[in-house]
Amino acid sequence: MDLAFTPEELAFRDEIRTWVKDNLPADISHKVHNAMRLTRDDMQRWAKILGKKGWLGWGWPTQFGGPGWNAIQKHLFEEECALAGAPRVVPFGPVMVAPVIMAFGNAEQHKRFLPGIASGEVWWSQGYSEPGSGSDLASLKTRAERVGDKYIVNGQKTWTTLGQYGEWIFCLVRTSTDGKPQTGISFLLIDMKSPGITVRPIKLLDGECEVNEVWFDNVEVPAENLVGEENKGWNYAKHLLAHERTNIADVNRAKRELERLKRIAKAEGVYDDLRFRDEIAKLEVDIVALEMLVLRVLSAEKSGKNSLDIAGLLKIKGSEIQQRYTELMMQAAGPFALPFIFEAMDAGWQGDFPGGVVANAPLAANYFNMRKTTIYGGSNEVQRNIVAQTVLG
Ligand SMILES: Cc1cc2nc3c(=O)[nH]c(=O)nc-3n(C[C@H](O)[C@H](O)[C@H](O)COP(=O)(O)OP(=O)(O)OC[C@H]3O[C@@H](n4cnc5c(N)ncnc54)[C@H](O)[C@@H]3O)c2cc1C
């Protein structure tokens, strides 16, 4: 196993770095570096810039219009984007549903759906979880009944991230109650403008409405929107979740946020406190260890081995690290990490904030927001069970 980059890989990294520097809008990177709220337009503007270059589907093979990069090149691309302060690409289209459509969809679906995902024009959401069916996803109840050349969908999805912007949603639906719960699930692509769909926001601890409930009331979905075979959706869903968990580890963002933590600790005068610096050092060691783990996975992939079975491990460590740096930032800012000022997350906010560093105001909201990371994408408790079974045996 060789974890060092080759001269070609380093040259590739320079090329990406230069392109990102020249193309990432300064107002967007300013917001990312200071944890300010990104609007729908901010996220989609960056997605379209990447799309125009052919890099929004940076993990895609050339056959489907992607750059055909290997695992190391993908990693270097993600790292350069994160360090430069690019927004995290909303993964539901390019990272989650696209690989499923490529692997299990038909030629017509490739032609119909992939271009809109690759260009960043079409916003996708993920409709897996339901009330009572999160960890126990196979118990999901949203029904899709085949009537002629349509499915009639009834039920409810929940925790749908950014579903308020969603134009399409990929859903797991129940098409049979025979046999094991897993064998009666299908994978449907649903136009969110269809009559009978209602999206209701859920307000979270940080005051934002990042997640939603999505209701389906006799929604008609053309049967041609079924991916793969009826009742085989569980297999496709598992394919997608492995991608989701690797993506959630986000070691590159952790490296950027570690530098921000150090800046905040210095600005607030706690960097000289040995105990506080100990905490930063422990976090840094864990981030380096996570990076080594990611590089081991990439090195294995480069030599043709499939390492996605440790995706759960990456998700556990990555999400815990994300929670730790937001906690340390809030501790560093102390009383200036205000409990909740909604407007403080907007660019240019200069509210009444005597004595503190204005840029630190969103830290508490961020802390609250990041509590989600050990829950979504499959909770860490459940991931530990999976790792115990698949890795330890
Ligand atoms: C911010 C956020 C965004 C999300 N975005 C989306 C989205 O876009 N689309 C989507 O489909 N879903 C989304 N989810 C849903 C997410 O996948 C689920 O919340 C997650 O799978 C946990 O399910 P649950 O909430 O039903 O909790 P439950 O499954 O009810 O779990 C409750 C608690 O019990 C523990 N637990 C459950 N089973 C076991 C077990 N077997 N062993 C040990 N402990 C166990 C869990 O770890 C957890 O602590 C999102 C969630 C959040 C918080």
SSE blueprint and pairings:
Blueprint: H1 7-23, H2 26-33, H3 40-53, H4 71-84, H5 92-104, H6 107-119, E1 124-127, E2 143-147, E3 150-157, E4 168-174, E5 185-191, E6 197-202, E7 211-222, E8 226-227, H7 233-249, H8 251-267, H9 274-302, H10 311-333, H11 363-369, H12 380-392
Parallel strand pairs: 1-4
Antiparallel strand pairs: 2-3, 3-7, 4-5, 5-8, 6-7
Helix pairs in contact: 1-4, 4-8, 5-6, 5-7, 7-10, 8-9, 8-10, 9-10, 10-11, 10-12
Flavin-adenine dinucleotide binds at residues 126-129, 134-135, 159-161, 211, 372, 375-376, 378-379, 381-382, 385.
What does this structure look like?
It is a single chain. The protein folds into 3 domains: 83 residues, no CATH class; 109 residues, Butyryl-CoA Dehydrogenase, subunit A, domain 2; 143 residues, Butyryl-CoA Dehydrogenase, subunit A, domain 3, CATH 1.20.140.10. It has a 4-stranded mixed β-sheet with strand order 1-4-5-8. It is α+β, with helices and mostly antiparallel strands. Helix content is 47%, strand content 13%. β2 and β3 form a beta hairpin. It is globular, with a radius of gyration of 21 Å. It binds flavin-adenine dinucleotide. Flavin-adenine dinucleotide binds next to β1 and α12.
Please name the defining characteristics of this protein:
about 400 residues, alpha+beta, Butyryl-CoA Dehydrogenase, subunit A, domain 3, binds flavin-adenine dinucleotide
